[in-house]
Write a structure and sequence with these properties.
Blueprint: E1 4-7, E2 10-12, E3 18-24, E4 34-39, E5 46-51, E6 58-60, E7 68-73, E8 78-83, E9 92-98, E10 110-114
Parallel strand pairs: 2-10
Antiparallel strand pairs: 1-3, 3-8, 4-5, 4-9, 5-6, 7-8, 9-10
Length: 116
């Protein structure tokens, strides 16, 4: 059973920044493309950023391009999401998983709330 733990969420004002972390118990994830997903209340989970296995390629949803940066450290089985200039639509629970997602890799997620 792979354990994935997301952390780093919190409450910030619009324009604020957060850095999310994703820690995996397995090195297997290092050879896979990993994505950060966001699930807003009442909406489906959607990919906001992804990174290839050796970090050569990244992709971002149009809504976060230029403001979010995804990175990974395969030495520590970790993936990060640097978020700056957060907007109200950045509110939601953030998860990391492979892309396409593996059903056994969903963690508890980390809540991000953008609010005044």
């Amino acid at each position: 059973q792979v354990h994935v733990v997301e952390s780093g969420g919190g409450t910030v004002q619009p324009g604020g920044s957060l850095r999310l972390s994703c820690a995996s118990s397995e090195q297997t994830i290092n050879s896979l493309t990993v994505a950060w997903f966001r699930q807003a209340q009442g909406k489906e989970r959607k990919v906001v950023a992804l990174i290839s296995s050796i970090a050569i390629a990244t992709w971002y949803d149009d809504s976060v391009t230029g403001r979010f940066t995804i990175s990974r450290d395969n030495d520590t089985n970790a993936v990060y999401l640097e978020m700056r200039d957060l907007k109200y639509d950045g509110t939601g629970v953030y998860y990391c998983n492979t892309s396409p997602p593996h059903p056994n890799y969903w963690g508890q997620g980390t809540q991000v709330t953008v609010s005044t």
